[in-house]
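To fix ideas, we quote verbatim a fold written out as tokens:
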Amino acid sequence: PAVPFLYPYGPHEHDHKNPKLDDGTSKELSLTVPFTFYGKKYQTLYVNNNGVISFGIPVKQYTPDPFPLADGRPFVAPYWADVDNVLGGEIFYRETTDPMLLARITGNINYYFPNIPFTAIWAFVATWHRVAYYGSTTDKRNTFQATLTTDTKTSFIILNYEAIQWTTGKASGGDAETGFGGTPAHAGFNSGDETNFYNIPGSQTEAIINITQTSNVNIPGRWVFQVDDFKVTGVPTEVPKVADSNNCWL
């Protein structure tokens, strides 16, 4: 049988859950292994409901701003938009050294980056499971995941997009019935140094709905980056087009 696209998550993995709170965040989470992001080592992070994992400071902002941000917040945004987990969905997370998962992550990284010697010793998995958007009057839901991993020297972030059915919450100018319009979701990396950043193609445009079909590692819906000294590889040169079909999100 095919290996599930997302890394394992949920109650059976003993994940923690974020509180049911609009624009909520986790508490500050201490890491057992430091994680290097854009040349800086971090010992703590926050999992923020609005589709962001941040270092040093929580992010409650619900409408994404263009990168680079001028306020020094370092974070990865798997899908920065106005999530409302009170209306629906869960945000799960855990730190793990599970040998089976680390072997799987190591195999993935070795396959995508054959010239970089890497054996994962640690991972942090955050999963937004069937989350609703603020102001929603529909049952549209998004499921996506960010996995941080390191061998203590080299760090990677793996972004998985399983199902994306909305781009925008109502308070960001979106339509309550469709989850589209306004300021769409942003996917990318902000270093915190006000200069270095990376936007996944389609960010803050209606084309971000198609992130389940795009990739830099030839696996639709998966984006993988080396982030200790940030590098971009394998990025398609064309910005993804919005699907013509009216039912592409069903």
